[in-house]
Amino acid sequence: MAVNFQESDHWKEEEEAFVKASELAVKFLDEDKAVVMVRSAARQLKEIDQPAAATQLYLSVDSVRDAINILMEARDWTRAQKIAQELEPNYYPRVKSAYREWLRSKAEADQLADIYIVKTIVKEVASPTISMEFEHILRLFHHMLVISKVFPNVAGLEVVATKASVSLFRFADLIPANRAFYEAGANAKKTVGWENLAFVFFNRFLDIVDMVEENCDSADATLLDNTDFEQTEVPYDKLCIPVRPCVNGVFKEQAK
Description:
Radius of gyration: 24 Å
Structural class: mainly alpha
Shape: elongated
Order of helices and strands: HHHHHHHHHHH
InterPro entries: TPR-like_helical_dom_sf
Low-confidence stretches: 1-8, 111-127
């Protein structure tokens, strides 16, 4: 998903992309990583002047004060006060004080409009560039969408979908590695007939499953023989190893 968010004028598409990425982050990542991704998306929505969407993202991960601050900066005092009263009562006096100060400054500005028109608001947080990690997550979601949405509904894209499933190996530090290798192996063998690749992928799947079954909580990617992946982009020493296999025993027998 190669989108230059800073140069694009299509703010609606940007908003939808950040919201969708946040939803997928919450669905597929562990809580800490999901919160980081959602907060990053909210900051980007703020930078493209979409305070309402940014507020919703902050609230979705319980960053209530960040949500209130965005509403105050957008001069949405009604919502800012309502959320503060309901969710962050200790913060409400500050919101109320800021609102009174704004009314006072607005009255003064109205009186001196011909002399003093623009007043700069200093932002608490500097505008961040999209982090490499966030770009990494967006690319992951792009491949996942191709596999789950495009391939099942559009004929003739078997090779594309298989290549996309192989590309997921680059993100095997974020998604369950055993499932990634199994699905890539299944696609390679059944869909496009790449028997040799399927053999390698299924072997790695079985290695991971066996390690999980034997070591349980102490399973570690460094315990595997990673010779086949040393010259690749696969993060072989940082694989996301589940505590329990996320592919059932039937698939294990099929892979054998």
